[in-house]
Design goal:
Elements: H1 8-16, E1 20-23, E2 28-30, H2 32-43, H3 48-54, H4 59-62, H5 64-75
Antiparallel strand pairs: 1-2
């Protein structure tokens, strides 16, 4: 889990993204559809950060570590 905490503004922004099921100060639960989309796109050579960006996420607020670790889990 990332040590990066989300402020209330970021939490509100993330809740609006249809790829997010739940979000708290410390964690995000992504939709199953997004996870499947991520794995397909990544298998086609799209970089993880680009997949998140194209899916409406502010990658600076998520952080590289969170994006990398999520992708690693989903590819398993």
């Amino acid at each position: 889990m990332s040590k990066l905490k989300f402020d209330q503004e970021t939490i509100k922004e993330l809740k609006k993204n249809p790829n997010v099921k739940r979000v708290s100060e410390l964690s995000i639960t992504y939709s199953d559809e997004f996870k499947e989309h991520f794995v397909r796109e990544n298998a086609n050579g799209i970089m993880p950060i680009e997949i998140f960006r194209r899916s409406g996420f502010d990658v600076r607020k998520l952080g590289q570590e969170r994006i990398a670790s999520s992708g690693k889990r989903w590819r398993k």
